[in-house]
Amino acid sequence: MSASTATLAPATVRRERPIVTRTLSAFTTLTRRRLALSVRTPRELLVPLLTPILFALVIAPALASIGPTIPGLDYMSFAAIGTVALLIPLNCMFAGIGVILDRETGARRDLLAAPVSRPLIVLANLAVALMITAVQVVVLVLAAMLRGADLNTSASGIAWFLGAAVLLGITMYGVAETLANRFPTVEQYVGALPAIAIVPFFFAGSLFPITALPWALTGFARLLPLTHALALMRYGLLDHNASGLHDIWGMSNATTMAALSLTVVAAYAATFSAMALRTFRKSVES
Questions:
Q1: What's the CA gap between 73 and 241, in Å, rounded?
Q2: 209: which residues sit within 8 A by CB, 6+ positions away?
Q3: CA 255 from chain center: how many Å?
Q4: Contact 48, 29 (CB under 8 A)
Q5: What angle do CA 264, 132, 274 make, to 5 degrees?
Q6: CA distance linking residue 149 with residue 143, whole number of Å
Q7: Which of 90, 106, 103 is nearest to 279 (CA)?
Q8: d(CA 84, CA 81)
Q9: Taking each helix axis from N to C terminus, what angle separates 155-180 and 186-197, rounded to the nearest 10 degrees?
Q10: pLDDT in tens, 155-206
């Protein structure tokens, strides 16, 4: 009796990519998807710039011509940087509309069924909001400089400006994502948008120092992340005497005050980001 011996071919072992690589690949794919949805035409990139550029190029010079003065600062430059505090909240809050549309008529259900970590969906949306806002802030600052804004740049000053702008963007997108997952319709979301994105602009020292407000409103302004971010942005590009930071903290060391305000904005960014992730998780589980 002869026994036949079967020769088994070696099994092909499929190597899985490292988890970091898979995560980065998924994040990149989600980011490209959101970017394609958010900037399908140049109009969608340029329209949010109209109001801030109107402030920087028309309203700020007009106000400067009728007498507002900020000790030691050119008022047009002061107001031009202040319009960044309008652009960032507006743009990040408008990004929340895309979240609602994605939930109601888009591909969010398919994304939730895909083998990707759910927080990556929120982080990809945040990344696109920051990228679009960054382009618009650069355009706004360049337009203000062409109009005559007297900005003083240095490596450290640009770092303060960027740190404040990025953290403010993260904060405002956290608010946008949270509200977008709580409001059932675009109409309700849009109704709340002006109170969150525009009203703080008038209290945060955008057009005048916060000390010009009644004392109670000055105290309120010191609690707003926008106030701290704007004072930091001006400290970086314009106000090296740190008068805006002094109005908040009342200290003499500019670096210490800047670090404190950056810490405040970072704390807001972390808080609202965590809130956005938690709200997103609850909305997809309900």
A1: 10
A2: 70, 243, 244, 247
A3: 23
A4: no
A5: 40
A6: 9
A7: 103
A8: 6
A9: 150
A10: 999 999 999 999 999 999 999 999 999 998 999 999 999 999 999 999 999 8
